[in-house]
Amino acid sequence: MLEKIQNALNSLCELHAANAQELEELRIKYLSKKGMLSQMMQDFRNVPAEQKREMGMRINELKNALQQRFDELRAAIAVKETSHDELDLTRTPYPAPIGTRHPLTIVRNRIIDIFSRQGFTLADGPEVEDDWHVYGSMNFADDHPARDMQDTFYVQGAPSMLLRSHTSSVQSRVMEKQQPPIRVICPGRVYRNEAISARAHCFFHQVEGLYIDEHVSFTDLKQVMLTFSRELFGPDTEIRLRPSYFPFTEPSAEMDVSCQICHGEGCSLCKGTGWLEILGCGMVHPRVLELNGIDSERYKGFAFGMGIERIANLLYRVKDLRLFSENDVRFLQEFQAAN
Ligand code: DAH
Predict the structure, then answer these.
(1) C-alpha distances in angstroms, 327 versus 16, 26, 135, 169, 333?
(2) pTM for the full model?
(3) pLDDT in tens, 49-75
(4) What is the pLDDT of residues 236-261, one digit of tens each?
(5) Measured at the alpha carbon of residue 175, what is the angle toward residues 123 and 206, in degrees to the nearest 5?
(6) To test ligand 1's pocket by mutation, which of 304, 306, 311 has the most ligand atoms within 8 angstroms of CB?
(7) Which residue's CA is the nearest one to ligand 1's atom 6?
(8) Residue 261 CB neighbours (<10 A)
(9) What is the distance between the alpha carbons of residues 250 and 27, in angstroms, rounded to a whole number?
(10) Ligand 1: distance of its center to the CA of 189 in Å?
């Protein structure tokens, strides 16, 4: 019997199976109830007691070796049977986690979508801008406090270059290239020299809008703003315009929308007022039109500017501005459904 075991062990590597059927035949021959191994187990009963120990070990050795060979053959057949047509080497390995759009991208895309349905197209300009486009062409007096070093990041060694502090600079970029009718929105990043906290950051995002044509009136501005607000915050939303001041618009206004939470009753979000401020707007100052090569006798326009973070905060109640730029995956994943 020992000899039989040894022979079987020696010839193990000669066992071959080209397909599943041949493999099954091998299994029946060696490993099934009527196979070689079972037969040996039965013969084992007749082995004299003093040989039982060694014989038992040898049978076990054969059993493990047979099983291992069998597994190898089965794996080889599985590989062979996978047709090359089914093998897609470009496929992403699993698991493939689903990404999410950044909340600011989601809000920006919604804003673009709403304005593009009212005929606005996209425009953009550089983030590193010159003083003329950010301030001069927007009718900021030379000594206007917004030019102060405290607000604006200037480029070292190039005193007239700066990081734009608002997207209004793109208004000027568009006007110098194009005559009315002009109907653009300009989403983009802006920079201000602020200490970083939950409520302020040294960079944030704005969407600027500019509409210039003959016969444009404040009523047009109001209607575009009302449509925008209702599409973004819901059909029951009301708007309110409060007189304000910007160098580049006259008259200027700050716009509030009715509070989403209390619908005007007064709550903690709107600090009891029933209104939430969301943007600045106004009729383009005739001097701005002239400074940018547009005939202010013939054309009139309106403009508006809003902060994307501010709107994202209202839509999603994000309490800390810093979350928008930390790229914490747990925060970003929360917007999966909003994509
Ligand atoms: N540029 C202003 C700011 O950064 C926002 C703004 C207000 C833009 C009124 C406009 C406007 O176009 O008409 O605070």
Answers:
(1) 56, 58, 32, 28, 10
(2) 0.73
(3) 998 898 899 999 999 999 999 998 988
(4) 999 999 999 999 999 999 999 999 88
(5) 40
(6) 304
(7) 305
(8) 14
(9) 92
(10) 14
